[in-house]
Amino acid sequence: MENEIFKALADPSRRTLLDLLHASDGRTLNELCTPLQMSRFGVMKHLNILEEAGLITTRKVGREKLHYLNAVPIRQIYDRWVSKYAEPWAIELTSLKSELERETNMDNKPRHINRIAIKATPEQVWQALTDPAKTSKFWFNCSIRSDWEVGSPFELWNPEGKKQVEGTILALDPPHRLTMSWKFLSFPHAAHESPSRMTWEIDPHAELQGVTLVTVVHDEFEQAANTAAILENGLPIVLSGMKTFLETGATLAGAE
What is the b/e burial string over 143-166, where b = at least 16 CB atoms within 10 angstroms of the residue's CB? Predict the structure, then answer.
């Protein structure tokens, strides 16, 4: 997959398309054609290459097909080729805001999307997401707690016994979908904000047997800008850590 990512990034027109989606995500084909001196067919060809490399995702909203920047593959490239050579503080200096996923739906409500392919079954992904012994391996050392019933609370606790996150289970359909409200307690600048919403979509890959697509949608954060900024940087690390843990049994530095 790395070869496809580097190939996709090698073309300046494709990098321009990623820059356009970074500046304003959830764009239609027509909106992406306007800034480029290129035919619709040419732009479509570049978008297909970016989508095949996992650098963008698409969703149908009404009759429109919208395009979104996907942060996770960029995070994986960073983890492999940059972070192991860099000093720890470099992660902060090279803040991955350039990876942020911004989606605007038909109601003009902001939304962030991250997606990753994991060589595991949906059941294995679901267990990793809901088992405290497993979440601690990839969710910044935090263990998740809930009885996994609609309307029940859920919490993330760190190893020191401090509650980091709290929320409510809004909907669940094991092992394919989980929706929860989300409120940070560990970040003073976010603790006062209204809860936002996080949805996990866990689906078998349409073409690759034994591979599951995991999509995380964060929305309803109009009154939670600080929460959104924290999750924009943190979720790609969590998803990369989940992939590493499920596929190799190892942990990813930074997600532990």
Answer: bbebeeeeeeebebbbeeeeebbb
Residue with structure tokens 């940059």?
A: 82
In this predicted structure, the answer to whether residue 91 has a pLDDT above a threshold of 50 is: no
Q: What is the rounded (10 degree) CA torsion for 63, 197, 237, 106?
A: 20
Select, from the ranges 54-63, 137-146, 246-255, the one with the highest average predicted confidence (pLDDT): 137-146
- Say if residues 245 and 238 touch (Cβ distance below 8 Å): no
Phi-psi region of 22 (alpha: psi -120 to 50; beta: other; left: phi over 0): alpha
pLDDT at 65 over 70: yes
Whole-number Å distance between alpha carbons of 85 and 160: 30
| pLDDT at 82 (0 to 100) | 56
Phi, psi dihedrals of residue 110, rounded to the nearest 5°: -70, 150
With 70 as the cut, is the pLDDT of residue 39 above it?
Answer: yes
Residue 253 φ/ψ, nearest 5 degrees: -55, 130
CA distance 247 to 211: 10
Whether this model's pTM surpasses 0.90:
no
User: pLDDT band at residue 79, thresholds of 50, 70 and 90?
Assistant: low
Rounded to whole angstroms, how far apart are CA atoms 54 and 115? Answer: 8
Q: Which residues contact 203 (CB under 8 A, 6 or more apart)?
A: 122, 176, 212, 213, 215
**Rounded to an integer, what distance in angstroms lies between the CA atom of residue 22 and that of residue 32?**
12
Alpha helix locations (H) across the chain? 2-10, 12-23, 29-33, 40-52, 72-81, 90-93, 122-130, 132-135, 188-191, 225-248
Mean pLDDT calculated for residue range 117-129: 96
